[in-house]
């Protein structure tokens, strides 16, 4: 087509010749209209970087009347011309802009970060924190646009009494931005120079033997799933989610062992838990016999999903425990069962290293040089420890039963 000034009237009058053709503007070099073989008319800008030796490149501005008109398209072409005059490639700049707007939009980037997380416990914490507390506030804001003030706003909006939630949110976001810097998606993290929220006061609640017996008994009335979960938490001392999401493929009755894969462990370290007689009895009741299924969730709900009603089950136990004790128990949490077992291991004379191994806890005996050279798995010692713990619990239960049977004076 012969070059002429591109106007709305001119473009409206263009028709297809059956092949792709270009109409170039006589006023602005590089500004043109492409008419496809099918008659589609689109505004384009053609340019060259690096002088005569540079290659010719073309960027599409948009389709005529959908929504571009000739004047708007000319203004965009003029913007590209100014960018090219500065030695900048508008095609690359447009791609970067799209990447920032789409790939680096916080919701999409949060999903990418969640997918990169290893360990089921960590991934669940990251997912819940980002989806419930961060994405709703940051919305579609692009990662490079997020500043310290945005992070502060997110943290300030969290319930003030939930110090642990604030620290978790801080840790998750700091890790996300550090990951983004490592990938080259942003230059610097907004967390540089930010202070970590104050630590959560350490809990020291340890159940007494009397409380242990009451909770064990109350668990019998806490439902077919939550009751056994609580008893396994007490018998094994493992973490709540690790017990709740137990799979039959992980436990072997003939070996009296529970092999927890690293993907399900909070610290991403595979773990072997000896199953003492109490734990085996609990699992026998769940399996309705001594022949355990080969696979499938141990605590499967009627909806075929994992058990999640911990709060509701805990209320049932507290209500029943109040009846048994004839008074409310001092406030306690499921995690206190783990601390209670660890404390009683000390009472039973179990070595500190064995206790750490039994809890799958990365402590001072499993870091640094010890982590490199200490390869003993403590399995035999753990078997003895869990056996002793079961014997202690049996004695506690027997004592509680005798006390309940004694006639009142």
Automatic annotation (TrEMBL):
CDD domains: INT_P4_C
An annotated Gene Ontology molecular function: DNA binding
The keyword Chaperone appears for this protein: no
Keyword DNA-binding: yes
InterPro entries assigned: DNA_brk_join_enz (IPR011010), Integrase-like_cat_sf (IPR013762), Integrase_catalytic (IPR002104), Integrase_DNA-bd_sf (IPR038488), Integrase_DNA_bind_dom (IPR025166), Integrase_recombinase_N (IPR010998), Phage_Integrase (IPR050808)
Keyword annotations: DNA integration, DNA recombination, DNA-binding
GO-annotated biological processes: DNA integration; DNA recombination
Residue ranges annotated for the Tyr recombinase domain, each copy included: 202-387
Family statement drawn from the similarity comment of this UniProt entry: Belongs to the 'phage' integrase family.
Protein name, UniProt field: Site-specific recombinase XerD
Organism listed in the record: Rhizorhabdus histidinilytica
